[in-house]
Amino acid sequence: MSLPRYPAYKDSGVEWLGQVPAHWEVTPIGHRYNVQLGKMLDTSKISGEHLAPYLRVFDVQWGAINTQDLPTMDFSGGDRVKFSLRAGDLLVNEGGSYPGRSAIWTGQLQECFYQKALHRLRAYRHHEDSSKFLYYLMAVAVDQGVFVAGGNEATIEHLPAERFRRYRFPFPRLSEQTAITSFLDRETAKIDALMAEQQRLIDLLKEKRQAVISYAVTKGLNPDAPMKPSGTEWLGDVPAHWAAMPLKRDLVFLTSGSRGWADYYADAGALFIRIANLTRDGIGLDLSDAQRVEVPDGSEGSRTRVQTGDVLFSITAFLGSVAVVPEDLDSAYVSQHVALARLRQAYLSPVWVAYAALSIVGKTWFDTQSYGGTKIQLSLDDVRDLPLPVPPLAEQLAITAHLDAETARLDALTAAAQSAIDLLRERRAALISAVVTGQIDVRSLPQMNL
User: Fold this and answer.
1) Which of 104-118, 146-160, 336-350, 434-448 has the lowest mean pLDDT?
2) Which of 299, 317, 319, 308 is nearest to 345 (CA)?
3) Using an 8 Å Cβ cutoff, are 353 and 251 in contact?
4) 288 plus 373 within the same structural domain
5) Which of 192-201, 265-274, 408-417 is least confident?
6) In a 10 Å sphere around its CB, with 0-12 CB exposed, 13-18 middle and 19+ buried, how is residue 24 labelled?
7) Phi, psi (degrees; rounded to nearest 5) at 379
8) 215: how many CB neighbours lie within 10 A of its CB?
9) How many domains does the chain have?
10) CB neighbours (10 Å) of residue 213?
């Protein structure tokens, strides 16, 4: 389908915009919108006669505003007008990790205000401008890196009001803004529905993956095998010829890294395995974000160095994340948040232990053993005492080979679904960009077939 363009264009004078329709106005945002930064947080104002809820920067996400469990602060006198919210106001993150992130206030609460680190944009002339059109423009500007100094996200943390007011944006007539936002609301809703469908598939595949692993490590591959009570209520019956034992029965040793390794971080050197390198769904290491260290002299270096077949457990976050050290791994060491278990392999295969830790066996055990208040963690004894169903070693290898194949198949389906989401997200962003910058004339465009 060939998409219509406007009959005439002009140079916008703005690099990221390029050409825009000739009849559109390109002007600083502050000429059409009042840009008001929120109220500075004042701990002395947490009590008073005019307590009211206020929004913080993390309450404003793309297209969504959290209004649950908001803090309150005293807003009295002129502040009640200056920092008030009306339906149709556009809220824009001024700081944090995502300057420019925006959402429209629709009057979710009868009374609400907003804190510094948020801008409120309110049209000077409501009969000329639509905050929904500006919302879509903000999405394009953020995607283009307009608010990032020099294109480097590390060089800017704030979007000051003075600078914000000077940014130039394209503005058609209100009737055209309305036609554009109606078109985008309709078409992005279709794309969002397709992405949600793929996300549901990913969620189902994740559930299927967990079920396949849990069934295999508790029931085996032979559906006709005689069964016996496991003696553990949540585990149920297991094959009659299987044994049961804690991990410690087959351990050579169990340890974790020591504190202070951050002092040895380097651009080159040995791998330093952290919790982030242990995935929550698989048994392989994820080294896409690998830290390197210059290994200190002494026993700490040798004690925490991994070997092929070591089983690694997360013990301070994402409990139960696990990985088996592969044969081809470079010299590597574990952090204080990772337990290193080395097996004799007389009774247990490392891969079997890892799959068992991912299954209902490990998840239930670690959930019941974890301790701590806001920081849940495991002790090394919790790992040492992990109860395991134990088939003969040959059967363990057969089951883990089956699981390797099944999880690879499910992972491929998950990757395909995620790829579809990524492509749809790119298409969504490209469509919004083309429409709000006038590269497509949607005023008389029928619905698109996605």
Assistant:
1) 146-160
2) 308
3) no
4) yes
5) 265-274
6) buried
7) -90, 165
8) 14
9) 3
10) 25
In 167-280, where does DSSP find H-type helix?
A: 174-219
User: Are residues 386 and 249 located together in one domain of the fold?
Assistant: yes
Query: pTM here?
Result: 0.84
> Is 8 within a domain?
no
Question: What does the alpha-carbon distance between residue 55 and residue 115 come to, in Å, rounded to a whole number?
Answer: 6
* Structure confidence at residue 155 as a pLDDT band (50, 70, 90): very low
Residues paired with 313 in a beta bridge? 322, 339
How confident is the model over 52-108, as pLDDT tens digits? Answer: 999 999 999 999 999 999 999 999 889 999 999 999 999 999 976 789 999 999 999
Q: Which domain holds residue 188?
A: 174-224+392-450
Q: What is the DSSP letter of 105?
A: -
Inside any domain, residue 19: no
Q: How far apart, in whole angstroms, are the C-alpha atoms of residue 91 and residue 104?
A: 6
Residues 39 and 99 in one domain: yes
Task: Give Cβ neighbours of residue 11 (< 8 Å, ≥ 6 apart).
Answer: 18, 19
Residues 423, 354 share a domain: no
pLDDT of residue 151: 45
Contact 140, 432 (CB under 8 A): yes
Which distant-in-sequence residues (6+ apart) come within 8 Å of 101 by Cβ? 60, 61, 62, 92, 93, 142
User: Is 365 within 8 Å of 386 (Cβ atoms)?
Assistant: yes
In a domain, 289, yes or no: yes
The residue length of the chain stands at: 450
Crossing angle (nearest 10°) for helices 131-143 and 393-436:
120
Residue 312: C-alpha distances to residues 52, 232, 362, 398 (Å): 49, 25, 13, 22
Q: Is residue 183 part of a domain?
A: yes
